[in-house]
Amino acid sequence: MKLIIKLLLTAVAVVVLAKILPGVTVAGYGSAIIVAIVIALLRLIVKPILVILTLPITIITFGFFLLIINAIIILMAAYFVDSFAVSSIWWALLFSLLLSLFQAVLFSLIKED
Fold first, then answer.
1. pLDDT in tens, 35-78
2. pTM of the model
3. Transmembrane segments in this chain: where (predicted)?
4. Is residue 113 pLDDT above 70, yes or no?
5. How far is 101 from 81, CA to CA, in rounded Å?
6. What pLDDT shows up at residue 111?
7. Quick one: angle between helices 89-108 and 65-80, nearest 10?
8. Residue 75 falls within a domain, yes or no?
9. Does residue 113 lie in a domain region?
10. Which domain range does residue 55 map to?
């Protein structure tokens, strides 16, 4: 149940960010739910592989390259979901930072059992 709530909160954050950021568009609420699911799957499957493959550059940049990996995950989600578009990697970087911030705030509202 908590997973569904987190996905719905992420979808709400995606819609809000798409309204705020001019470089990000999403077709509607149904598309935002699909985007939330795709981002969750990409973070679960692809992100660990990218982190391991780019570990040397991540160490050299003191972890800042992880921000680029998050932006790449957002661009991959835009590639897989036709109704979600991000115009550049810079918008993806800003979107991923703000999405993480919104998720931290929204997820803190969920009570832990």
1. 999 999 999 999 999 999 999 999 999 999 999 999 999 999 99
2. 0.91
3. 28-46, 53-77, 89-110
4. no
5. 23
6. 74
7. 100
8. yes
9. no
10. 2-108
